[in-house]
Amino acid sequence: MESFSLILAIVVVTALAFDFTNGFHDTANAMATTISTGALKPKIAVAMSAALNLVGAFLSVEVANTISKGLVDESGIRPEVIFAALVGAILWNLLTWLVGLPSSSSHALMGGLVGATVASAGFGAVHGDVLVTKVLLPAVAAPIVAGVASLLATRFSYGIGSQADGEATRKGYRAGQIASAGLVSLAHGTNDAQKTMGIITLALIAGGAIAPGSNPPTWVILSAGLAIALGTYIGGWRIIRTMGKGLTDLEPRQGFAAQTSAATAILASSHLGFSLSTTHVVSGSVMGAGLGRKGGVVRWSTATRMFAAWALTLPAAALVGAGAESVTDLGDWGTAAVAVFLIAASAAIWKISRREVVDHTNVVEETGEPAGVVTTAIAAVIPPPTGTVVEELTATIPAPAAEPAPAVPPAAAV
After folding, report:
1. Cα separation of 137 and 275, whole Å?
2. Distant-in-sequence, close-in-space partners of 358: CB < 8 Å, separation ≥ 6
3. Cα–Cα distance list, 334 to 11, 75, 337 (Å)
4. Whose CA, among 43, 54, 374, 403, lies 20 to 30 Å from 7?
5. C-alpha dist (Å) from residue 289 to 58, 244, 295, 323
6. pLDDT band for position 377 (50/70/90)?
7. d(CA 239, CA 245)
8. Contact partners, residue 11, CB within 8 Å, separation at least 6
9. Cα separation, 384 vs 147, whole angstroms
């Protein structure tokens, strides 16, 4: 095994901690719709997702090579820079998990790495062409492509199934949804687990433990796969609730269309080496499926907050990464101070989360999020799906009250 210094060991442990947060942060990507439609029980769903994440970690190393060899100049990177990048990524993951927003763990890692690298070696150490073509452009294109594909797949499924038996159709789509959810989990392992492999490999190169240009060692692949699988099994229930109930209400055939579209996009990007955000892809697919059913709605207030988190992820993680690198640059005591800050901040976030516990027992409860003005307007002009009973409209102006009958005068006395 490679020779380790203390700082290199700290970096590897911190990278695996990030991989763990990535697992529970992104569980919703694979299993939120499956849980919300009732296709699988919550605990069974996350256990299945965890196992397939581990398998997916061994299928490819293309994304890992993008991070370890392509994004930054590996010759000018110190292990402390990698540590600072991970601090920014972990804190952003925990903050967005606390508020239940499905942001991108991948972009948090990329942002932290870019920020820490710039603080350490300047802008010239970042390969801008790789950042644009393999990180930024896929971030914009992926949710749009997946959303459109999911919308069309949903329309198609309702079109061909309009005459089918309702209960038999629902059972068939639930079975398909379980299979497609497994495919998303497998795809998540091939993409997101590799990012931690890439960051650990970059740290090993920076620390002189392995030669520049090396592929991830087997023990790195195994440890990264186990860390993300364990995090997935823990379950990011807050984000699962947002993805499954907060964005839109899905039927089994919509969930099947969303997950199949997402898995296809993620697997294709992994093959091409794109550091794609599975969160962006799955969120786009879920919204596309919501809009693909006649009368379906998307809660745009939730979507707007999610889009804002997406836009802030890269710069926010980069700022924290740059700040952490500035402190670690002061010496060993600076690195120790950053480590203490990371542990304290993580503990504080966890303590705050205990004020309102979300777990497998209440994850499918309604969020109470209103549909929003735009969605209400769309639903008002689009006819409901076949078989839906439309309630009779009632008058909003009450009818005038009946005039009281005139009093009858008393009979005259005789």
Report:
1. 10
2. 100, 237, 238, 241
3. 14, 23, 5
4. 54
5. 31, 12, 12, 40
6. very low
7. 10
8. 79, 82, 83, 86, 200, 203, 207
9. 21
- C-alpha dihedral sign at 279, 226, 96, 364: positive
Q: Report residue 338: phi and psi, to 5°.
A: -65, -40
Phi, psi angles (nearest 5°) of residue 126? -100, 130
Largest CA distance in the chain: 127
CA distance 378 to 152: 18
DSSP bridge partners of 126? 72
| DSSP 8-state secondary structure symbol assigned to residue 126 | B
Kindly tell me if the per-residue pLDDT of 409 is higher than 60.
Answer: no
Helix pair angle (42-56, 166-206), 10° resolution:
40
Amino acid identity at 182:
G
pLDDT digits (tens, 9 = 90+) for 135-154: 788 888 888 888 898 899 88
Model pLDDT for residues 186-229, shown as the tens digit of each residue = 877 777 777 788 888 888 887 888 887 778 888 988 998 899 88
